[in-house]
Structure formats: C-alpha cells, structure tokens
Amino acid sequence: MTINVLVVDDSALMRKVISDILSEDQEIRVVGTARNGLDAVEKVERLKPDVVTLDVEMPALDGLHALGYIMSECPTPVVMLTAVDPKSAERTLNAFEYGAVDFIQKPSGNISLNIMDIANDIRLKVKIASRVDLKKLGFMEEHVNSRENAEKKQHVPAAKAPEDTRKKHFSNQKILAIASSTGGPRALEQVIPKLPGNLKVPVVIVQHMPAGFTASLAQRLDMQSQLRVCEARDGDVLEPGIVYIAPGNYHMEIVQKNINGRTSEVVSLNQNPREQGVRPCANILFKSLVPLYGQNILAVILTGMGADGADGAEEIKKAGGKVIAEDERSCVVYGMPKAVVQRGLSDSVVTLEKVSEEIVQMLR
C-alpha cells in the first residue's frame, strides 16, 4: 500500500530535499508540498494525505498552530521537523499534546544541508506514523486541560525534597525503571504526574529522544508532578522521590560508589555505541540495575517502536523483579511492550491510564 505524504517547510530547498528522500522509497509517494502552515491546512483538506511532515518554525502560521487546525478539522498523522534549541524543544513537546505522532531533529538547524544523514530515519518515521491509530494520540481536550491545570498549580516546596535533604544519601531498597519511545512523551505525562509525592523509591527513565530535548521534557514533567523530575547528570546520587531522565545521546547506567565512606547508587553516563539502534538504551539501564537491586526492581515498558527493554526485562525477571507492560489498546506504537508480552515477561498488562495506579500497587 502506497503512503501518500504532504511535505511542509518554509524552505524551498528543504521541501525538495525531504521530498526526494521520501520518494526514494517505493512505498512512499509525495502528493504535495506546502510553504507554510496556512498552505498546509488547505492542502491537507484537499489532498487527504496519509501522513504530513510538518516544520515547527514557519511564517504566516507556524507548525504548532497548523497542527492544531489539522487535528481538529482533518485528523492526519503528523511527524514534526524541528531544530535543536530550547524554544523549538518546548514547541515540539507541545506538539505531542496536539496529536503529533513523532518528531525528526534536523541535524543542523532549520536549513540542514546534511539532512541526508537522517534519510532512513525520516522514511521509517513516516511509515510508522501511517500505521498509528489517531484515537490513541493525546490531542483530546481533556488531556490538554489537565496539563494546563497542572502548570497553573502552585508548587509548595514541601511537596518535594527540601534542599538540605536532597544532598543526603538514602538507602534505596526498591527502584522504578521506565522505558518509552514513540509516543513516550505523551505517555510519561500520563504516568509521572499521577505518582504520589510520597513515593519512597527513585525513578529512572529512558525515553528515546535526541540531545537537547530531554532537559525540556524533564522541566515539563517537573512542573506537572509532585515528585521532583530532572535530567540525570553523571555522578547524581539516587534519592527516593526523584525522577531521573537519561539525557539524549547518552546511555545511563546505575553503579555503586563509595562516597564519604558510604556505598551509594550513582548515575553513570557514557556515549558507548548505540544498542538496538538507540542511545540512550533501556536494556543498558535495566541490566545495570540487576546486580544492585535484584528482586526489588519494578520495570515499566511503555509505547515505542522496536524491542528495546525486553532483554533487560528478562534479566530483571530472572532476578525476581517485576515488569509492567502498557496494553496494546492505549499504545501509540505497540512495539516495545509487545516484545515483552510475547516473551512472557510481563507480570501485569494495563492501559496507559492505569499504569501509575499499577505502579503504586506493585511497589507496596
């Protein structure tokens, strides 16, 4: 089946390059291009493409507002194209709330002469987007309102660890580890803010995102959550009630170090070769936890393409730990959880809305 794509970018050069990249695949046909958001909205309604690639930064009507119109008037799977800077990262995360399936990071800004370096990634993400059930995307009014309410919430300092206690090491008996990929930012916003502020375990997360985006994701989740959420730094000592997100382009492992005469669990970052085609890799994180926490690990596998996390989940299970997998009914892409379920590694399979409740129950 041919996938019809509309390419939207304010740069004529980028429209041509992206169209050529997509057209190299016999399963993909570029049915049109648009130079800005207004042009895109009109052509989506007229051409009825299967997928839209949509630039974030454009004149007349930018990508985010165009996405809003598309998803409300003519719902279509959209893959965002974005540069790497704090403003673009924030807009990209907003795009997930309005229904974007995924995003592609331009290698070198808005005019990326080296975009051919990610040609395969562009084609793959377009193909994945064409298979997504739009009903599973997070552009529902209820979800947007819940985020706005969370951001308006006044954070009381006592709801998070006080500054003086954050510097102390707590003896960690249990740990919660989460893996997600395509559709993950939206999924994490459905899970982390629902966890109670008195959660007595550290939380470590691998979300497949490039460098420059995980810091914005951590800040956003921090604003919405009772728990403190941060982008992990090399040498961070794990503390209960704090969520550590692996930074983009770095594998994250947890190791033990002697700090002031006391054994502590510490974040260790590296840029070793990609595994499963990704960095950070959930398998690497999960496997590093096994010798330290054993049966006290609770792993959660959320939506995502591929099978990252399954090998690590198998080692966690062998050590006596537990695994929760997101149910196919709520997954944007049923890949990573499917690999876990098919291998018989899941102790529980629940829809996204019930994941946080299941976490609390299984940590008791």
TrEMBL record:
Any one annotated GO CC term: cytoplasm
Domain called CheB-type methylesterase: residue spans: 169-364
Entry function: Involved in chemotaxis. Part of a chemotaxis signal transduction system that modulates chemotaxis in response to various stimuli. Catalyzes the demethylation of specific methylglutamate residues introduced into the chemoreceptors (methyl-accepting chemotaxis proteins or MCP) by CheR. Also mediates the irreversible deamidation of specific glutamine residues to glutamic acid.
Domain notes: Contains a C-terminal catalytic domain, and an N-terminal region which modulates catalytic activity.
Listed InterPro entries: CheB-like, CheB_C, CheY-like_superfamily, Sig_transdc_resp-reg_Me-estase, Sig_transdc_resp-reg_receiver
Keywords: Chemotaxis, Cytoplasm, Hydrolase, Phosphoprotein
Main location: cytoplasm
Organism for this UniProt entry: Methanolobus chelungpuianus
Record lineage: Archaea, Methanobacteriati, Methanobacteriota, Stenosarchaea group, Methanomicrobia
Residues where 4-aspartylphosphate is found: 55
EC number: 3.1.1.61, 3.5.1.44
GO terms for biological process, alphabetical: chemotaxis
Cellular localization per UniProt: Cytoplasm
Family: Belongs to the CheB family.
GO molecular function: phosphorelay response regulator activity; protein-glutamate methylesterase activity; protein-glutamine glutaminase activity
Residue numbers annotated as active site: 181, 208, 308
Protein name as catalogued: Protein-glutamate methylesterase/protein-glutamine glutaminase
Post-translational modification: Phosphorylated by CheA. Phosphorylation of the N-terminal regulatory domain activates the methylesterase activity.
Annotated catalysed reactions: [protein]-L-glutamate 5-O-methyl ester + H2O = L-glutamyl-[protein] + methanol + H(+); L-glutaminyl-[protein] + H2O = L-glutamyl-[protein] + NH4(+)
Domain Response regulatory residue range list: 4-121
Keyword presence, Cytoplasm: yes
Stretches the record annotates as Disordered: 145-165
Comp. bias intervals (Basic and acidic residues): 145-154
The UniProt record lists the keyword Cytoplasm: yes
